[in-house]
Design brief:
heterodimer; A: about 290 residues; alpha/beta; Rossmann fold; 2 domains; six-stranded mixed β-sheet; about 35% helix; B: about 600 residues; eight-stranded mixed β-sheet; seven-stranded mixed β-sheet; 11 helices
């Protein structure tokens, strides 16, 4: 499967992943670091001590004050980008399928991150968390990423809280956590997302929903079958019931959005009916995930 | 509110069926979705939002059950008793059978019914039409549909009581068919309810208002009268059956008159509801009118007397053509009502004065018309041919149901030899041996014959009990007079059949009036207006023939009024005249059913979309 068109990849060349927090990287990269380093961006001064690199002495300041100060620059380090993909059975639903759409988003974001020398990890989750690619960098890893994404199948039921909790406990390096999911979990999402906060991650939530979820086009005497749990419910759908469903869905989305606002997370919602390139090039830019 | 067809409520058993259908799983289209929890929540919210949701859920069921109940009620045909409102076609059936002559209400029941009828006619509106049917042993249209109250009243008043049984079923069929073109038809049945079960009269029965007359059953009646020849002499025995329908023990005398002269009387005591046969033996008169009369005070007079006609039949003339057969000669010489003679075969010539000719062991050529017995006789008759002889034929079967063979036991009869024959074309084999029929009969238009294939001397049958029984049966079979001995006795309503060559027949009916009838040559003249009990005298030239016409009907004598009757599963109760009209309102209920079904459709539609 050709996940991304070459034309589209060219457009991604000029983009990079943005993080609102500054994380401590391990190798030099293209993101601000807490460490003072040698990037062109000035950060601070400190007193010269023996052994410091004389090239960073601010001679202008020495001229005025006759004291040696060393210019400190922000260190540019690589960013840890964790791409978390919900692969539960509910994602393998919709027209187009939410999982197919999400895989493309992940591939695009992965490409951007790898292109910017970020450390990219790919994880998928349902009720558990599975690490597919752990902390790779460089464009050369894109093929690896694509192969991994192509092998992903939607199955099992979601448990967001449990999966995110496991992720937070397992991963020690904080970084940007991009979670792509429908976030539709009866047990909620708050606890799992809170774990990310405790562990200093910066979550970015991309909620992918199918148009059939946003605007159901079913009615009459039907038997609803939950794709994840196989639970059935016999209903006679009418406009009233559909209206209540929409209201509940909106409430649920609002609940997620409010939670994110409260905790300082980024949350965007996308329907799979929205063209994928539009999401990457416009929506995510506006959402300040990429630049 | 009352119901014409109360049995329709048995359909209420369908209500659980509707509930069952409702409980049965609706075939729902399976739809796979990403999650159900939002839907379940929506369902709960919708339920909470509409406090009458449960009711709405069951609204379809409630509407369906209501529709079904109303539909069943429609089938039960509810009606309200209202005063006569007119605007419809009415058939008034007036029962004028014998039981309506009962005077238990002071006047006769028929008079009461006539009074009620006049009241109904009086309540008619000018646009109403009425037809009147009187019903005795058969229905009779007294007047067809008319708005003329004067004619209707006149017709009612002209209805006379009959001494016959009643045929309400036929009258109702006539009334229903008369009303089949009118949707507003109604039947008034004025009767004491004393009629047989009506059975089913079809699916569409108009409203029937039943007006019942009579209050009690104080009656003793003669319910049967019969004459028979005495088995021991040439006299008659008279049998009279009386029955007590009252609620008390009745003691009375049963007097027998011969030509109005008292000749015998029995004292009878009858428990309530019991009946009894009285036998008056040895009435030796050759002819006369017998009148049986009970002296009892009760409410129905007509069944207190009954009639019978004594008339000896002509003796049967029998000729035996034989060289001599002492057994047969002796047998016939002692048989009552038989004029017997014998002749040698050589002296026999065709003679039509005999009712029966017996050929015993003679050879015959042509046989044309008449009644014959051929015993061991060589004759060529209608395909019957003698084709040989059989030695010691063994009887293997005989037709015990044939009147000739009744009570005849042939198992102990041995035969030395017999003709071997082919049976006649239209004949019937009565006794059969292995190789040949031994006795067969033939009945054609002018020929009645019995063929015995063996000579009586060649068998021991003459020594067996079968012999006198067989010949007694044979004589009864040949002699039509023996069975028609009492043809001059019929029930009221049954026709009198007169066979005479006279062109004019004078008939005197019991009330003394004379009726002239047209005689038909070689055909029967039928007189069917035999609705009065008594003696009908037929004057055929100088001769007089008498026919006794009796009610003799236990059902009519039982004057207990029946307040209910049923047609199929529909019960009808008697009404009171002042509120006799049953106004059916099933049409409104049917409309309600339609509205309910429409509402049910709307609710269903609204629920689905």
């Amino acid at each position: 499967m050709n996940l991304l068109e070459p034309e589209f990849i060219k457009k991604l060349e000029y983009l990079s992943i943005l993080s609102r927090k500054v994380f401590k990287g391990s190798l030099k990269g293209e993101h601000k670091s807490k460490k003072k380093g040698i990037s062109p961006e000035f950060s601070d001064y400190r007193n010269y001590t023996i052994g410091d690199d004389l090239r960073y002495i601010d001679w202008n300041l020495y001229g005025r004050l006759e004291k040696l100060f060393l210019k400190l620059f922000l260190e540019e380090e690589d960013l840890y980008v964790y791409l978390l993909l919900d692969t539960s059975a509910s994602m393998d639903w919709g027209d187009p399928k939410k999982l197919d759409y999400s895989i493309k988003v992940i591939a695009a974001l992965g490409y951007i991150a790898l292109n910017n020398m970020d450390r990219v990890s790919l994880m998928r989750f349902d009720s558990n968390m599975y690490c597919e690619i752990n902390s790779v960098r460089g464009k050369g890893q894109f093929l690896n990423l694509v192969q991994n994404l192509q092998s992903i199948k939607g199955k099992d039921s979601t448990n967001l809280n449990e999966a995110l909790k496991r992720f937070a406990l397992r991963i020690s390096k904080p970084g940007l956590v991009i979670i792509i999911s429908d976030f539709l979990d009866e047990k909620g999402f708050e606890q799992g997302l809170k774990f990310l906060l405790y562990r200093k991650f910066e979550p970015f939530l991309i909620q992918v929903l199918a148009p059939q979820e946003l605007n159901p086009e079913i009615n009459g005497n039907i038997k609803l079958i939950d794709i994840e749990t196989n639970l059935t419910k016999e209903l006679t759908l009418n406009q009233t019931l559909i209206a209540f469903y929409k209201k509940n869905l909106n409430n649920y989305i609002d609940r997620l959005h409010n939670f994110c606002n409260e905790k300082g997370y980024q949350h965007i919602i996308s329907s799979t009916s929205l063209p994928f390139d539009n999401l990457i090039l416009n929506t995510l830019r506006r959402g300040e995930l990429i630049r | 509110m009352n119901f014409i067809d109360f049995g329709a409520f048995s359909f209420l058993a369908l209500v659980p069926v509707v509930i069952l259908f409702y409980l049965l799983k609706l075939k729902r289209k399976p739809v796979i979705i990403s999650n159900t929890f939002l839907w379940l929540q929506a369902f709960r919210d919708a339920k909470a939002d509409r406090p009458f949701q449960n009711l709405t859920n069951n609204l379809l069921l409630i509407l369906q059950i209501l529709a079904l109940i109303f539909l069943i009620t429609v089938k039960a045909r509810p009606y309200l008793k209202t005063s006569f409102q007119g605007g419809h076609h009415t058939v008034l059936i007036m029962d004028n059978s014998a039981s309506m002559q009962a005077t238990d209400t002071g006047k006769s029941r028929l008079a009461e019914a006539q009074k009620a009828s006049l009241k109904i006619i009086d309540q008619m509106k000018s646009t109403d039409e009425m037809m009147i049917i009187s019903v005795g042993s058969r229905p009779r249209i007294e007047i067809t549909f008319t708005q003329n109250k004067g004619n209707l009243s006149k017709t009612i008043k002209s209805i006379k009581p009959l001494d016959s049984s009643t045929s309400v079923r036929d009258a109702l069929i006539l009334a229903i068919s008369s009303l089949k073109n009118y949707s507003d038809g109604e039947i008034f049945l004025l009767s004491d309810g004393n009629f047989p079960d009506l059975g089913d009269l079809g699916p569409r029965i108009p409203v029937i208002s039943f007006l019942n007359f009579g209050v009690n059953s104080n009656n003793v009646g003669i319910t049967n009268i019969n004459l028979r020849f005495s088995p021991f002499s040439s006299d008659f025995d008279l049998l009279v059956e009386t029955e007590n329908f009252s609620q008390e023990i009745k003691e009375f005398s049963l007097d027998i008159y011969l030509d109005n002269q008292l000749i015998n009387a029995h004292k009878i005591r009858l428990e309530r509801g019991k009946k009894k046969w009285e036998i008056f033996q040895n009435l030796s008169a050759p002819s006369g009118i017998i009148t049986a009369r009970i002296n009892v005070k009760d409410d129905l007079l007509i069944d207190n007397s009954a009639y019978a006609v004594l008339s000896l039949p002509e003796p049967m003339k029998i000729l035996l053509v034989s060289e001599g057969n002492p057994f047969l000669e002796h047998l016939f010489s002692i048989t009552p009502r038989v004029e017997f003679s014998t002749i040698k075969p050589e002296n026999y010539s065709i003679n039509k004065i005999f009712d029966l000719i017996i050929f015993d062991g003679v050879n015959l050529k042509n046989i044309d018309k008449g009644n014959f017995i051929f015993i061991g006789t060589n004759v060529d008759l209608k395909g019957l041919r003698i084709i040989g002889e059989v030695k010691k034929p063994v009887i293997i079967a005989w037709d015990k149901l044939h009147p000739v063979m009744r009570f005849v036991e042939l198992s102990d009869v041995s035969i030395a030899k017999s003709f071997k024959i082919t049976p006649p074309v239209n004949g019937k084999i009565l006794v059969e041996a292995k190789d040949t029929p031994l006795m067969c009969s033939i009945v054609e238009e002018n020929l009645k014959g019995l063929f015995i294939c063996f000579n009586l001397y060649d068998s021991d049958i003459i020594l067996r009990p079968a012999f006198p029984i067989l010949f007694s049966n044979i004589i009864e079979w040949f002699n039509p007079l023996s069975s028609e001995c009492f043809a001059n006795q019929i029930k009221t309503g049954q026709p009198i059949k007169i066979r005479t060559n006279s062109k004019k027949i004078r008939l005197t009916v019991p009330d003394g009036n004379e009726i002239l009838l047209e005689g038909k040559k070689n055909k029967e003249t039928i007189f069917s207006d035999t609705f009065s009990q008594g003696i009908y005298t037929i004057h055929d030239g100088e001769e007089k023939h008498y026919v006794a016409v009796n009610l003799a009907d236990s059902r009519e004598s039982n004057i207990k009024p029946f307040k209910k009757f049923s047609i199929g599963n529909t019960n009808f109760s008697s009404s009171v005249l002042d509120s006799v009209v049953q106004k059916e309102f099933w049409k409104y209920l049917a409309l309600l059913v339609l509205i309910l079904l429409t509402l049910e459709w709307y609710v269903f539609h609204r629920k689905v979309t």
